[in-house]
Specification:
alpha/beta; single chain; 7-stranded mixed sheet
Length: 222
Amino acid sequence: MAKTFSERVFSDQTKLFDPEKVGYPVHIIGAGGIGNMLVQLLAKMGFPEIHVWDDDIFEARNGPTEVAYSEALVGQPKVEAARDIVEHLVGDSVILVLHNERVTKDTELTGYVICGVDSMKSREEIWDAIQANFVDIPLYIDARSAGEEVQVLSVVPFDSEDVQAYETWLFNDTEASKLECGARNIGYIATYIATIVSYNLTRFIRGEEIEFNIMRDLSRNI
């Protein structure tokens, strides 16, 4: 019998993660520091359908944080930069759907949703969209950073306890950590967060327990 695509390409990882068992598309909201690392990881792991949402362009100042994007991509929409990276890594073996727009409360989402935006107002809109579509979203992951402090919240949207706990972490941008311009982010922080997100997502797909709230201060321990 001929081997499946997963058996041929992903044989070294299938006991940890089998792409044929994903079952849903993945939506990455925000193609910046966290998002550009995630799209690489998930594409290389074999997630069959990845949606990327962002209405921003890649600027030179983003380069140190958004490590996958080269200088040649400056001025391009970030979603197109993400496409170039995925095509380079895996060709057309992944369905990549680009959305050069923001997610609002009226956006229809289906599948695993990962948030990597940089404002609480955007998170509130994304959460409204999650709640409107919760029956079709098995897992929502909200990844955050402030300097060297990181937080990853993993929420099952149809679990009332998860919902109640997550909503305690929604607050105004004025209440969020304020950092000097040069301390907002750096490449290793985005890489670390993307790793945590990928780990929780794959554990969830395997049917294993995941941690709701992961917080780390990388200046103290990693």
